[in-house]
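S.,

Sequence below, as promised.
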Amino acid sequence: MNNNPYQPYDPAVPDFEPIVKNAAYYRRVARQKLKSVFGVALVVVLLASLLGGIPGGGVSFSTGSSGGEVNFEFDPEAFQNMTFESFAQMLFGEQIGADRAVTLLTVMIAVLGFSVVISYLINLFVGSPITLGLQRFFLNVIDGENVNVGVLFSYFKKAYWKSIGLRILHSLILTLASLPLLLLMGGVVVAMFLTENVTMVYGVFALAMAACIPFSLLAMVIEYRYHYCFMILAEYPEMRAVDALRNSAQIMKGNKWRLFCLDISFIGWILLATFCTCGIGVFVLTPYMYAADAAFYDDITNRQAAKETEFPSVNPDDYIGQQEF
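The prediction came back faster than expected:
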């Protein structure tokens, strides 16, 4: 009896033991493939991160205080009556004067806005082809081919504009998927302005947090649906960006939950790398995660059996349909 849905049962093989292709299996494949090239993989990931080639990255900000405790208490009336000048003074302190506080806050907003624009342009025009190069690098790792840092920059000459188009389309899809969450949080902010009842504000906030759960799940499903669009375009640069998205959606039918299980299996390592190494260990862990991700893609697309064929097909209807997650 075949208890493994991913490995066909072969009665002709004595003592047949099917391979259970779970998260542990893909992690094991990743470790085996990375053994001799881990140093190069680490350099490639660091370069890709610096050049904006890792989609979904973010910047976190932390605040602190010294010389005493800071107690915050929400005051709806004070919040509603707050002006740009009073906010600037609250941020920088009453002692520096209103005019100087407004000037400092204006400069800070301008610098922040300029930085955001420059960062976005770098991520779009430099990071997009780098993203494809990163995907191609880890596919080479899984294939056991010679790997080098130059692969990271190979898509500046091929599929450059396609990579940019795919980054824009992918970002637009994820933004639209997150739109209900943004509208929900915007509603909370509006409620804070329109009412002076603290209990009502907290009630609206609690309801918004509860409503965030289904919307978050929807956004996660959509993200997994188009998860492999960059890897597909990296492998088939002759494909259109929209076809890469359609093919990703097709190959992820029935595989979203499996990929989620693979991702969540790294949670222990992520926590360990984050809190025990002050975040530095995350960079060491990232090549491992990317290799496991490439191993999963290699398996669900059956690339080894399709080396001489056009796969994934530019026509998603050519795929054999599976149950949608």
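The first helix runs from residue 23 to 34.

Coffee later?
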